[in-house]
Amino acid sequence: MISPADIKHNALIMKMILVFTAFPLALFLFSPSTNEPVYPDHEVVFDTTMIAGYSFFRENGIEITAENNIDLFNAIYPIMGTPHRIRAGRDGLDCSGLVKKLYNEVFGTHLKGGSRDIFRMTNEILVEELKEADLIFFKINSNQINHIGIYLGNNKFVHSSSVSGVVINDFSKDYYQTYFYKAGRLNL
User: Is residue 95 annotated as part of the catalytic site, yes or no?
Assistant: First the structure.
């Protein structure tokens, strides 16, 4: 049989459990939410060591910040300079092969076909709306889409050039503006 002393003792233990667990939990759950950092005088530092080739991208006019898709840049850097090969293979990449490789690796999106096929999968956007990872399509000496690149921001894009292989170029250059067709965005 439980004595009155045992009941008082158990009640005391329950009160202690309530005070030390439920009360702090309630304070946490019902405290006003703010977007202020927990330590307002603590400065958040962007760790550039998490980006492969950070200085390479800076030298190419791309300033990477915490808002960028770090996975995209980390996937691009090791394949810079990979030779251009028609029908991408082990030892090279053509333009659509580059896009398919990066979209698969970074976004888990399995694209099929060439630049024309990929264009059909996009929602057309204006040049002014271009954001990182959007696609830009070209008609180079042709009346059909025959080249594709990935926009990186600051008028830069990565593509597989038939001359230089995987390279970053300035989209605002006359050559690219002459052959530019349209921009598109995939729904990821």
Answer: yes
